[in-house]
Amino acid sequence: MISFHGMALRESRTAHRLIEVDWSSTGLDSPATWSPALKTAAQLALNAYHPMALFWGRDRLAIYNDGFLPLLAAQAPELGSGPMLSGGLARVVDSVLEDGVPSCRADEPIPLERGHGLEEAYFTLSFSPVKDEHGQTQGVLAIAEETTSTVLGARRSQLMARLSEELATHPVMAPTAPSIHRALCGAGRDFHRAALFGFRADGELKLQWSEPADFAGEVTRDETLSSRLREEIPGAAKYQGMIRLGERRHALIVADPELFAEAAAYVLVVEAHHLVRLGDSYRRLLHNVLSAVGDICLHILEERRDYLDVTRQRDERERMYRLLFEYSRDAIIIATPEVGVIAANPAACEMLGYSEDEIVGVTASEIIVNEGGRLTQALSERRKTGSFLGEVKVRRKDGSEAAVDISSVMFHDEASGGARAVNLLRDAGPRLMAERHVASAARLEAIGQLTGGISHDFNNLLSVIISGAEDLRARLPESDPARRSADLVLDASLKASHLTRQLLAFSRQQPMELGAVELAGLVTELDQILHRAVGPAITVSLDLAPHLYARTDGALLQSAILNLCINARDAMPRGGSLTVTAAQVRLEAGLAETLSLPAGEYARIVVADTGVGIDEQHLARVVEPFFTTKPAGKGTGLGLSMVYGLARQSGGGLHLRSERGRGTQAEIYLPLAQPPEAAAVPEPQAEEPPAPVPAEPPRTAAARHLLVVEDNELLSSMLGRILQGAGYRVTVCEAAEPALDLIAGGEEIALVITDIQLGAGMDGWTLAERLESRTPGLPVVTMSGFAPADPDADPGAWRAPMLRKPFRPREILALIDQLLP
User: Fold this and answer.
1) What is the pTM of this model?
2) Which H or E run includes 753?
3) In 223, 230, 584, 692, which residue has its Cα 20 to 30 A from 100's Cα atom?
4) Closest by alpha carbon to 394, among 434, 341, 438?
């Protein structure tokens, strides 16, 4: 890294040029005087791996990285000078500077010098405003992504589709010639000039059409074409071929001397545009055009009257097969036992690292690794059954290896009279990653279940420790050194209880505690954590409406927001912007119906990033448990499902907006809540001074008989000690059935305290329900540090409240004092 006036710059040619520039001669002055916004944006542009440039100020002074340099001009402008952009792009920069609104130009043509002269290239450029600390737009950050292959592929597919469509409508040659003319000369810049000739038996060329008109004369003046045609065309056989006439000019030939006396052949001469690259892709285009034109010409010669009815379907099938072979994302290889590979589509060449010419003749043993006899097994199975389906390892031209899924079918080719095999290969990496992800998610779910169970048992122990520590503290005088030890034990136990709540939340077994939550304060508490979690490369901004309350669980909402911010960080590996907003909005009918919510006013929290975004086909599934778009080992697929669950349990919903390459926006809608009264807001539990266990029984305790149902011996003993110390008479049962028998026997019980999880047999919910039906009016207090076993059970449906484990002695004593008259 290079340090320059507080900026850490990646080693690059432009970074060194930045240091060498005499900034006093530019409109930017010395870098020491640059604003934080300018330094941050310049550092982002120079350190980016994508082509990126910063245009600063009204003069659009340029700072750019190595990748953006070819887009500016043939001669690089000095850093800090005005940009040498085309007029249209310069106007976009001016517009963003003026309005402060991002803009994008898709598939912008920008010819580039690539070592063989200028070539056509296309880029999608995104222009984003850069604002200072006052929110004023000071510059524009431009990010470029090359889309040349996509544009060329679409253009050439359109050309072939148009050519096939034009040719399929005419059964005779006279109207077919202008159809070829319309298709080739109206499909972009691949062909700069073109002409169609008939080649007569006497060796003369007869013009059908030319675009432009003078191109035909230039072709016919060169006697090379005529002499080559006499050499190439056989005396009495059908023929299709191609002759190169110059660096950028080719002749596509279709001949059948037996059938056509006037024209023994049709010759289509095309000349590539000066910006078109003459590589494999262009050669494939020529072969496709030749095939399409050749098919139609030969069939016209052979079946003038019956062409439309007989050949249209066949031509369409052949075109579809051709397109399938050429543009299939799966590798397709056709081979024979004698020769080896006889044809391979572009995907196969790319997978194995061969050119189309190099791969012909390569044998199966050169491509498939016979690791563990896998090739031998595959060939043996295919000989026996005619097909093979499985996983093999392939060896690329450079010697590297990769796992692929292969489907191989052997058949007898009637045309050649021999055996041929069609092999479909697909990279097995995504499947293997998915299988590893499922296994990882299953392990995580098992860990969650184990964590929940351990936390439940630990809560019982913590209840005993907290109660014992408070009891000791209350019985020790302040001057006793042991009282400090009791304080430490109590403090540590309370912190441990917070840890168990986090573990239960992780395992999704923590009951929600709904209440009025002030969103601005809740999010502000996360500010420092967010900055540490996302890292310095990401700008975090908060826009929070004050005094906005929502009904939800505050702790779980903080976890949900943090989870969304971490997802956003992972989507911006090279930095970006993260914005968290909270506001009251009206949910209109359309979106409300999508979220299954009534229309109306809601509190909305939005976490927005400028990351890579989510594909449309994945967006609808990201809230499903265990579904993730992250690589294996980088995500479990539980985060968004937990956020979705929180929103739904709170009475709201989650809506995601995303576009590939343009970031993601997660919107949490929550019901509005009234602000709680100030007096009702309790102090944090950990800061309250522990209250001593009353030395004298309260007024209501005399002669009151309490029944405790708890299967944990330590906890039941401590509860008995607390309640007896408060003057109550206590009976303890380890299960629900003995407790019911005790009450049915006529024992007078003033109040029942029962745990929810009671091991084998009846649980606490069922016990409370039985007591409510048999002894109406008998107060019941439930205890739990665990989610309800019955997911439909609602603790709020019981008249008696629930104590969350671990609890402190004064909590249960105060609750009993409220319930007993």
Assistant:
1) 0.38
2) strand 751-755
3) 584
4) 341
